Amino acid sequence: MADLAREVRSKNAGPFWVTMEVFLRDAGGYRVAADETFLNERVIAGLYRVDEGSVRIFRIPSLNVVKISFPRPVGQGSVRDRDMHAGQHHVPLARLVVPAGRSTGPGGTP
């Protein structure tokens, strides 16, 4: 996914939620990332070990952005919190492999 994106980031959305944003380089990359057969609640639930029903995905075509939110595994600042600001949660999403055959269009990657 990182190859399609200008930036992939994560942050707190309050003490009990994480939000991740994928800023795609262009409309072609957005089409790949926004495709519900590629990136959906089931995929995010598997990557982050959260309940599929709790995942929220917002696709914003006018900005070439996909935004994803889900409950934090533990509350922010709790004894078991390993990432106080949720700043590292984006890594599994950024490393998500785009399946062969998905095209961003002329001149794009992959």
From TrEMBL:
Protein name (Swiss-Prot/TrEMBL): DUF4387 domain-containing protein
Location of the DUF4387 domain: 1-95
A Pfam entry, by short name: DUF4387
UniProt cross-references to InterPro entries, sorted A to Z: DUF4387
